[in-house]
Amino acid sequence: MELLSLIMRIIWLVNIFAAIVTVFKDKREIAATWAWLLVLSFLPIIGFILYLFVGKKLSRDKIYDIKTQERMGIEQLVSLQKEQWREKELLPADEITATAREMVHLFLETDSAILTKHNHVEIFEDGHAKFKSLFDDIRAAKNHVHVEYYTFYNDQIGNDLRQLLEEKAAAGVEVRVIYDSFGSRGTTHHFFEHLEELGGRAEPFFGSRRSFPNFRLNYRDHRKLVIIDGQIGYIGGFNVGDQYLGRSPKFGYWRDTHIKITGNAVIAMQSRFFMDWNATVKEQHISYKEEYFPLASEQGKTSIQIVSSGPDSEVESIKLGYIKMINNATDYVFIQTPYLIPDDSLLEALSIAAYSGIKVKVMIPAMPDHAFVYRATQFYAKSLLDAGVEIYKYNKGFLHSKTVVVDGKIAVVGSANMDYRSFKLNFEANAFMYDEVVSQQLVDIFVQDEKNSTRLTAAYFEQQSLWLKFKQYFSRLLSPIL
């Protein structure tokens, strides 16, 4: 018995030592470090298996591949716009608010995100409408179709889109697809073989063409981009799959937000796609061609910056943009997010805004799609409620929309959630829009969604069971790695 006890102590000490070495060999934030120490120390063997799939960082070589990609087509524009901003030529005072002017400079400095003007924006809340518009635009493509999705499922809508891309490739249109092998579980490169036989290209983001599944949870390509002829761009929260059309019995109606952009903001989306493509493929990189970056005539009145963030950047540009918007709000902040797991800086910004009398509303789903993530979301919802934030639970189906609107003047739609994963661990892309008309449209959509939601109260959380509260607190401890 004593021998068994000694063996167990030795195993425990070895496990603790291995946990410390494993966690500290990579540079990471203190909160994430302690979260992993907790998992590795109290879940021997199992914790290390989880770390292999979840905690292991992306190799320096792959990070370097992304960082060194040229921002094709816009490098010179970034330098020019920085100079124009200093000379107050880029943003005349009568065209934009002081907050927007500061945000434009923030993104020029942190993400080299150019400001584009005179864009037209169309908003989609329903998957059927979004895919109908997307399919119509792809059918009309003359030169190229570039597709980048976190999820591209081998199901009805996935096969419909692939078939359409095959038709365009057969007609001589350049077709390129980037898909994330983890997000597209069940879709292997075999799915795209006929597309490639017809002249198209499809590549898994930082993955292998082999059928062996990729279980690495972190550092995924969470972006959702489509660029057509360099003139039309789609960006937002919808992936490619039947569940996004409400065909999943588990989720029912799928409530998301996506936008279609026509105008020069598509140039920035194109550049983002090329950086991801050239970092992913080993050969046949895309080089600059004028047809990829056609200058658009005036399409609308929306000024837009396409902002990216991910493990390749030392600065969390999208999160900083959110904080800047919240800190400068004078009237209200409306947020929709499926996952509410903010870090301390964002949590404080939202709390301070609410304490200061700003109307802060946050809408989350009424059902989980990931158990731990949803329990952590509930914990932070309760914390923000205590600070005076209005929390709404969307009841009509699953809320997957990622939007922020401040004071009816600045709005954001994209792929980034309000969580650690979107800010630090995955590759994201958002459209920051400086336009009162588009902002008001998103406000109206939020107000309409409120009719299908329940406003949560302190009593709602107080009546929850001790077991549920424990799961929420425990999930919160793991929030930096969820």
From TrEMBL:
<dbReference type="InterPro" id="IPR001736">
    <property type="entry name" value="PLipase_D/transphosphatidylase"/>
</dbReference>
<dbReference type="GO" id="GO:0032049">
    <property type="term" value="P:cardiolipin biosynthetic process"/>
</dbReference>
<feature type="active site">
    <location>
        <position position="407"/>
    </location>
</feature>
<keyword id="KW-0812">Transmembrane</keyword>
<keyword id="KW-0444">Lipid biosynthesis</keyword>
<dbReference type="Pfam" id="PF13396">
    <property type="entry name" value="PLDc_N"/>
</dbReference>
<keyword id="KW-0594">Phospholipid biosynthesis</keyword>
<keyword id="KW-0808">Transferase</keyword>
<protein>
    <recommendedName>
        <fullName>Cardiolipin synthase</fullName>
        <ecNumber>2.7.8.-</ecNumber>
    </recommendedName>
</protein>
<feature type="active site">
    <location>
        <position position="229"/>
    </location>
</feature>
<dbReference type="InterPro" id="IPR022924">
    <property type="entry name" value="Cardiolipin_synthase"/>
</dbReference>
<feature type="active site">
    <location>
        <position position="224"/>
    </location>
</feature>
<feature type="active site">
    <location>
        <position position="402"/>
    </location>
</feature>
<feature type="domain" description="PLD phosphodiesterase">
    <location>
        <begin position="217"/>
        <end position="244"/>
    </location>
</feature>
<dbReference type="InterPro" id="IPR025202">
    <property type="entry name" value="PLD-like_dom"/>
</dbReference>
<keyword id="KW-1003">Cell membrane</keyword>
<dbReference type="Pfam" id="PF13091">
    <property type="entry name" value="PLDc_2"/>
</dbReference>
<dbReference type="GO" id="GO:0008808">
    <property type="term" value="F:cardiolipin synthase activity"/>
</dbReference>
<feature type="active site">
    <location>
        <position position="222"/>
    </location>
</feature>
<feature type="transmembrane region" description="Helical">
    <location>
        <begin position="6"/>
        <end position="24"/>
    </location>
</feature>
<keyword id="KW-0677">Repeat</keyword>
<feature type="domain" description="PLD phosphodiesterase">
    <location>
        <begin position="395"/>
        <end position="422"/>
    </location>
</feature>
<comment type="similarity">
    <text>Belongs to the phospholipase D family. Cardiolipin synthase subfamily.</text>
</comment>
<dbReference type="InterPro" id="IPR030874">
    <property type="entry name" value="Cardiolipin_synth_Firmi"/>
</dbReference>
<keyword id="KW-0443">Lipid metabolism</keyword>
<dbReference type="GO" id="GO:0005886">
    <property type="term" value="C:plasma membrane"/>
</dbReference>
<dbReference type="InterPro" id="IPR027379">
    <property type="entry name" value="CLS_N"/>
</dbReference>
<feature type="transmembrane region" description="Helical">
    <location>
        <begin position="31"/>
        <end position="54"/>
    </location>
</feature>
<keyword id="KW-1133">Transmembrane helix</keyword>
<keyword id="KW-1208">Phospholipid metabolism</keyword>
<feature type="active site">
    <location>
        <position position="400"/>
    </location>
</feature>
<comment type="function">
    <text>Catalyzes the reversible phosphatidyl group transfer from one phosphatidylglycerol molecule to another to form cardiolipin (CL) (diphosphatidylglycerol) and glycerol.</text>
</comment>
<keyword id="KW-0472">Membrane</keyword>
